[in-house]
Every structure is written in structure tokens, then in C-alpha cells.
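ugh ok fine here u go
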Amino acid sequence: MSTDKIKKKEREIQMKRFWVIFLAVMLMTVALVGCSGGTEEEATPEASSGDTAQNAETGNSEKPYIAIVAPGFQHQFWQTVYKGAQDAAAKYNVEITFEGPPTESDISVQVDMLNNALSKNPDAIIISALDSQAITQQLLKAKEEGIPVIGFNSGVPNAPEGTIISTIATNNYEATKMAAEEMFNNPQFNERLKAATEDNPVAIAVQSQDVTAAAIIERTNGFIDTMKAKTEELFPGAVEVVGHQVFAKPASKPAVVSIKVTVPPSTSYTDAQAAAQTMLSNTKNLIGYFASNEASVTGILAATSDGTELDREKGKYKDLIVVGFDAGAPQKNAVRKQYFYGSVTQDPYTIGYKPVEIAYKVINGEKVDEFIDTGAKFYTHENIDDPGIAELLYD
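structure:
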């Protein structure tokens, strides 16, 4: 056999050996993958690291994961709270999720959100409960599993002992005491109040969106208790609170001052508007109106043609002194135009920022206060642009 033929034969043998080895390796690879039951994606380290959103959803990030469950997200107030939470998360290098039900009437939806948060085994949970009693079992489970829970905004009043580490919130009762005092001291309001008699009584309206959220209940009670105490100084025993059984307080004498509470059947703006229209149309000698939150404020503005009927010179209700709570563009506009005498503002940015900061400290074993007040201020058309006020007002 020639040299060329020998070399050709060797090459053919080498090629056959190559294909035999290649096929054997492929068969072994397929068998190993089949036995593992996994996928290429699951075996890839990058797939388990993911991005921020994926980490927060799965709880697989190397960063601490904090789940935040709010009462809602439809009001601009909560969007500012969210911004504060995001900034705190960036500073303290933690992952967060921030969610809330479509409306603040959706208690069951919030409970489902809390259950979902627990299933991800977070390092901490931050919550403002729509109904404290509805989440008792979830709080007990979090405690059992060693997951610290931080309350914010309205927090979780009457929670089982030891389930809430700290609450970061506005002292709503004290904040609305301020609203009642400012209304009482308004010269026009005070003049009409002092002119009241048993034969010609006056009324003060209070509109609140519900009787389940602790923050709203505290605001309502703060205003009612303070206004009742102040008007009782003028008319001892002749001040009543009517309109809702949760807040009702009868007068011991014929009423000269009637504090009328209205609570719409839902938290929707249309129900808030309808409640305000009924109060305005059916209440004789109405001298003051307090709205406990942004939804109630919006309802009053809608019921008064975007507030124009509250115009101090030509409005249908020009003598009515209205005080609100929170901020938002419509409410700020109403204060600027003096449709509203003023409003109480919280600090929504701090309400979002501080809980994340506190949760981070708790995760790292630091001791924290049981309650942290985020503060409140009263603003009017005269101070709305002052630096100390303007920074607290969201759009």
C-alpha cells in the first residue's frame, strides 16, 4: 500500500474515533440534565441574582427585603409616601415593594397583599392597616416566624402584644385638635357661634371617609372632642354630636350647637360628593365644615362647584368656614383662593422615609422607639408658600 493510501486510512480511523467520542459525550450530558430535573436557566448563577424588581418579588436578593403594605395608592398623598420610601431604600441599600388596594374600602384585598408579603419571607414588613382586626392572624404568624412588623401612618391599633415593633405616624388626634382650634379662633366663625341661641342653634359639620381606619377615627375624635370642649365653654351642656353612632354624644340641655358627623357609604369620590351635598343642602345655620382627609375635601369641592360656591364675596356659602386635612393640588388651590380657611398637613415624605429607616435598624438589631411622631402643621393662604410649610405640601 502506498504512503498516501496509508495516511488516508489513518485519517478515516481518526474521524470515526472523534464521532464515537462526541456522541458518547452528548448522551452523557442529556442523561445528567434529565436526572437533575433542572433547566439551563436555573443552573445559571445570573438567573438567581436578577434585578431589583425581581429580587423584591422573590425575596432572593442579597440585600434586606422589606415589604410595604399601604392602605391605598389612589391619593397623591400615598405617591409622596412612596417617594420617601424609595429614597430611604436607596440610602440604606435595601429592596422594597410598595403596594396598596385600589380603594381604602378594600380590606380583604389588603389582607391578601399582607399574606403575599409573608409568603416571600421578608426581612421586615411595614403596614398601615385598613382594619386592625382583619390582620390579627397574619401579625401573629409574622411574630412566630421572627419577621419584625413596623406600623406607619395609621399603624395597627390594638394589635396583639409584641407584634408591632414601632409605629411611625402623625399623631392624628393632636393634629386635628389644631384644626378645631384654628376654626374656633376664626373671627367670622366665632362671631356666628356666639350669636347662637336655643331658638336659633348653629351646626358644625364633620365629614370622614370611614369608621374603620384608625387614622380617620383619631382625626374625627380629635376635632370633635376639641370643638365640643371649646363650644361647651360658651354653652355648657348645650352641645351635641349627632349623625353617626360611633361619635354620638348627646347634650344634657336643649342643643345650641350641633356637631353633625357624616360618613359616606364608601370611600369613592362620588359618595363623598353626595354626602357633602346632603350636608350643605339639609343643614340650617351651618357655620363650619371639617374634612378629615383628601377624599372628603374633594367631595366638598365637587359639591360646591369646585369650591366657587365658597367664594368669600359672592359664593352661595360665602360665610361657611371650611378646614381640611392633607394637601394635594385641589386643596392647596382652595386654600390659596380662600375657599378653605386652611388645612392641616402631615409630612407624607417622612411617613414613607422613616419606616424604611426604622425597619433597617431593627433588621440590624438596633433598639428603636415604640412611637415616632412625624408631625403636622396648619397652613392658610398667608403661609402656604413659607419654606417650612411648602416642603410638606404635595401635589
